[in-house]
Amino acid sequence: MKQLTGLQQQQYQRMIELSTLARQRYLEAGGEPRRASGSLHGNSYMTAEEKQEFLALGRQLSGIYVKDGYAHCQGRSWKLPENS
Question: Which domain of life does this protein belong to (predicted)?
């Protein structure tokens, strides 16, 4: 894994904070401590705003972006289908 810049490290730490918060909510709601607390079957323990922030941070950290109907990643690009 490449070294993260200061901003990327902050973004990564924020993702960890959001995940920890969701996990804590899951456990407080009576969730099984040895099971994953994922959002399968709509059981999300993140608010809509937290989920949006988490996904936006993930996109920023991944280095993948979409521009003019093309996806770009690691120096490569490909055209996206019209209905995407």
Answer: Bacteria
Q: Letter for the amino acid at 83?
A: N
pTM metric for this prediction:
0.74
> What is the tens place of the pLDDT at every residue in 4-26?
789 999 999 999 999 999 999 99
CB of 78 within 8 A of CB of 72? no
Q: Is residue 33 part of a domain?
A: yes
45 is in which domain, residue-wise? 6-79
